[in-house]
Specification:
The complex is a heterodimer. Chain A is about 30% helix and about 20% strand. Chain A has 15 helices and 13 strands. In chain A, strands 7-8-9-3-10-11-13-12 form an eight-stranded mixed β-sheet, sandwiched between helices. In chain A, strands 1, 2, 4, 5 and 6 form a five-stranded antiparallel β-sheet that branches. Chain A starts with 13 loop residues before the first strand and ends in a 9-residue tail after the last helix. The relative contact order of chain A is 0.12. The N terminus and C terminus of chain A are likely disordered. Chain B is mainly α. Chain B contains 14 helices and three strands. In chain B, strands 1-3-2 form a three-stranded antiparallel β-sheet, with no helix packed on it. In chain B, helix 10 packs antiparallel against helix 12. Chain B starts with 14 loop residues before the first helix and ends in a 7-residue tail after the last helix. The chains are: A alpha/beta, B mainly alpha. Chains A and B meet through helix 2, helix 3, helix 5, helix 6 and helix 8 of A and helix 1, helix 11 and helix 12 of B.
Chain lengths: ~375, ~400
């Protein structure tokens, strides 16, 4: 099937450089996103992982101007989508990109659908928003969409209301809503968090098939199983900055930034000291390395100035961490000893698939390293 | 070829094609345009024709034209969208009404009221004064205050005559000899005018102010809310009396003062509802799909606010009927219009300050029908409006039809 995905191959679909979003609060400016740069290639799934409050969602909503401004302010050196800058667009121009080119899926499926309308009307909303279409044309499109996301008996269920669907089905519907405008990039903000594990597995299959159709996905999650299942590349976020990035096998096999290691440890059941013992929870600093207050390897060079530059950390060319220890003068060996892959920290991960197997072979055998 | 379940066909969208199919004619707009055009035509005909009468002895006044315009607006933007939303339901209107007889009864009553309002001008002016027919009791009852000329069966002696009801005046007559049946229908017409005109005026105003304040927030919200608060402090009745001092009694003046000053409460309700809805996931989804603020308000926020808006509006309309009856009871109504309030007032023997009428000649209990029947009609109207308000709210909520 011929699709509109034939842009210049060398430029990434989405290219973000130094994105900053600050939000005015009663206590001054809150720097929710503080200099984030990344690319999403065509037909690629990029996962943004990190703990709650690390700025993942704000990053996504800043891209298309969904963050309410004011109180927020978004600035960036560049946000280019399909070769065109979107950061300096007017509100109207941004609206014409949303839905048609970049679509969002949000965390909570129960509230994502308007209870007043039958689902058949809602899934075609992105077409309806931009133009009025005839009812029969919209219904035909809606049936295709419901089938696309795997809703059985699509034609009969067009006239059902959202409350008549289960949570998993509602999330499929929300994805159908996002897909209606035939977007090039799907930004999914924790789409599997509110559903149970079985449903989650089916949704991940759906995401894989969406990527198979040529749509790129930027997936926000804090669930590393989701990352392992669908991601091509991983971005690890902490305190509004990206601290580590790279192909999923490299990052999972050799987590290099101290924060990434802590994050992966917190997921696995390790025999060693818990993350609370290894790290000290403190205020996140606003300069230098944001993780230094909690980092067991923090040194004086971590403080002050901009975020540490990215250094290549492993065999994979694109795998880099924003940590001074990986620089020319640093010695990363004490950090490397802590590397715990989430893949082999749990036996059940073995069954997840080939990614798990390939990463476990690449992992240094250093699970639960005591300090 | 239609897509199969196994291999869903997923066509590309042609946005240009969609662009062309944008519709400008909707049922609502068509109804509004046709209605207004018809009214304008008839108005022009009346203006051009020689006499003051339109057809026969029909002689519409300004308030009648205002009512017809308001009815057109309510039909176009109230009834048609409501019907559209009901049509998409799987539960039919008939089944829904059968399950709730109170709502069915109320909607029949309100429909009758509005029909009387529309057909009202055809009733013509007042029936002639027949003082010699005053105080006929309703059929099946007897009166110890007999009319000079009793049309029914008369019993008793010359000094204690008892007049029985007659089919000439099935609901009896008041002291002017006006049949109660006529007075009830004329009062229903006034009630219909009050509700329809204020609905057409208040709902758009309150909804617009509430939605704008709720969606924009910030300074706009502060200003609008402060204005509404100030406005709610001004007693509308006082303003009506001031206007009364200048222009004399007028139903339009009453509706204008109460309409202008009473929408604040609903605007506040809508505002708080909108602020809640604004944070809902589907609003964010709509925005993420490229919806404008106006689209989100029209398509998501207002339909989801009807749960509070609709019952509040119906309640306010019922209250307006009561206020108009109260003002008429006090005697500050137009002499030519018959309100339920004025009919009750004329039958009571209380001396009312500021009223031209003398004390009623008879104690009220002896001529109970002249006050009880309009009071019952008033009560029925209030109950019907409130019940119908709840019924409409439930009908608009798809979560209600678990059948």
């Amino acid at each position: 099937m011929s699709r509109r995905r034939d842009g210049p191959v060398e430029t990434p679909l989405l290219s973000v450089r130094d994105l900053r979003t600050r939000i005015r609060t009663d206590g001054g400016w809150l720097h929710a996103v503080d200099g984030v740069s990344f690319d999403v290639d065509r037909g690629e799934t990029v996962c943004l992982v990190g703990e709650s409050g690390s700025g993942k969602s704000v990053t996504c909503e800043s891209l298309t101007g969904l963050v309410p401004q004011p109180p927020a302010e978004v600035s960036a050196d560049a946000v280019e989508f399909d070769g065109e800058s979107v950061i300096d667009r007017s509100a109207t121009e941004l609206r014409s990109i949303r839905g048609r080119r970049i679509a969002h899926v949000f965390q909570n499926p129960q509230s994502a659908l308007d209870p007043v309308y039958a689902v058949g009307e809602q899934v075609t909303e992105s077409i309806r928003i931009h133009e009025d279409v005839s009812r029969s044309a919209a219904r035909g499109r809606a049936v295709d969409l419901l089938r696309r996301v795997g809703i059985p008996r699509a034609r009969e269920r067009l006239d059902s209301y959202p409350h008549e669907f289960s949570g998993g089905m509602q999330q499929r519907l929300a994805i159908a809503v996002a897909l209606a405008g035939d977007p090039d990039l799907l930004i999914a903000d924790e789409p599997t968090t509110a559903v149970d594990v079985t449903v989650q597995a089916r949704l991940l299959d759906l995401f894989r098939s969406i990527v198979g159709d040529g749509t790129s996905i930027l997936l926000v999650t804090h669930d590393l199983r989701v990352v392992a299942a669908v991601a091509d590349r991983v971005l690890v976020m902490y305190g509004g900055t990206i601290v580590e990035r790279g192909p999923v096998e490299a990052v999972f096999g050799e987590p290099s930034h101290p924060y990434t290691q802590a994050l992966f440890d917190s997921y696995g059941e390790t025999d060693g000291p818990s993350i609370d013992e290894r790290t000290a929870r403190g205020e996140i600093p606003a300069d230098g390395c944001r993780f230094r207050a909690e980092c067991p390897h923090a040194i004086d060079e971590c403080a002050g100035g901009a975020q540490p530059p990215f250094h290549r950390v492993s065999g994979a060319a694109a795998h880099a961490a924003s940590c001074v220890h990986y620089g020319a003068d640093g010695d990363p060996s004490p950090i490397r000893e802590n590397a715990t892959s989430p893949m082999d920290s749990r036996a059940e991960r073995e069954s997840e698939g080939e990614i798990a197997e390939s990463s476990s072979t690449a992992t240094p055998n250093a699970e639960g390293e005591p300090r | 070829m239609p897509p199969t379940e196994d291999a869903p066909q997923f066509e590309d969208l042609d946005w240009d094609d969609i662009q062309r199919s944008k519709r400008t004619v909707t049922a609502e707009r068509a109804a509004l345009v046709v209605g207004v055009a018809l009214i304008a035509l008839v108005r022009a005909y009346q203006w051009l024709s020689a006499g003051p009468y339109l057809i026969g002895d029909l002689r519409p006044a300004t308030v009648d034209w205002v009512f017809l315009l308001a009815a057109t607006v309510v039909a176009a933007y109230g009834v048609i969208p409501f019907a559209k939303r009901l049509r998409r339901r799987r539960v039919s209107l008939f089944d829904a009404l059968r399950r709730r007889p109170a709502v069915a009864l109320s909607s029949a009553f309100v429909a009758g009221l509005l029909a009387v309002g529309v057909a009202g001008p055809a009733l013509g002016g007042s029936p002639p004064l027949r003082f010699h027919h005053a105080f006929h009791p309703p059929v099946g009852f007897a009166s110890t205050v007999p009319p000079q000329e009793c049309l029914g069966v008369e019993t008793g002696g010359a000094f204690d005559r008892v007049c029985h009801g007659t089919w000439e005046y099935p609901l009896g007559t008041n002291k002017r000899g006006h049949p109660l049946g006529f007075l009830l229908i004329a009062g229903a017409r006034t009630a219909a005018y009050v509700t329809v005109i204020s609905a057409a005026f208040i709902v758009p105003l309150a909804a617009a102010v509430g939605v704008v304040a709720g969606i924009r927030g910030g300074v706009v919200d502060d200003l609008l809310s402060a204005y509404v608060d100030v406005q709610l402090c001004i007693p509308a009745l006082l303003l009506y009396f001031i206007g009364y001092a200048y222009y004399g009694p007028s139903l339009l003046l009453l509706l204008a003062t109460f309409g202008l000053l009473s929408w604040g409460g609903i605007a506040r309700l809508v505002r708080s509802e909108v602020i809640q809805r604004r944070g809902e996931g589907y609003v964010l989804v709509a925005r993420s799909l490229g919806a404008s603020g106006a689209y989100v308000a029209r398509r998501h926020i207002i339909p989801n606010s009807t749960n509070t808006l609709v019952p509040a509006v119906f309640q306010l309309l019922a209250l307006f009927v009561l206020i108009e009856a109260g003002v008429a009871f006090l005697g500050f109504h137009e002499v030519g219009t018959y309100s339920w309030g004025s009919t009750i007032s004329e039958s009571s023997n209380a001396a009312i300050a500021g009223q031209l009428q003398e004390r009623a000649e008879q104690p009220a209990y002896k001529i109970w029908w002249a006050s009880t029947l309009p009071a019952a009609a008033l009560t029925a109207t209030l109950v019907a409006f409130k019940t119908l308000g709840d019924g409409v709210r439930d009908a608009l909520d798809p979560r209600g039809d678990r059948s």
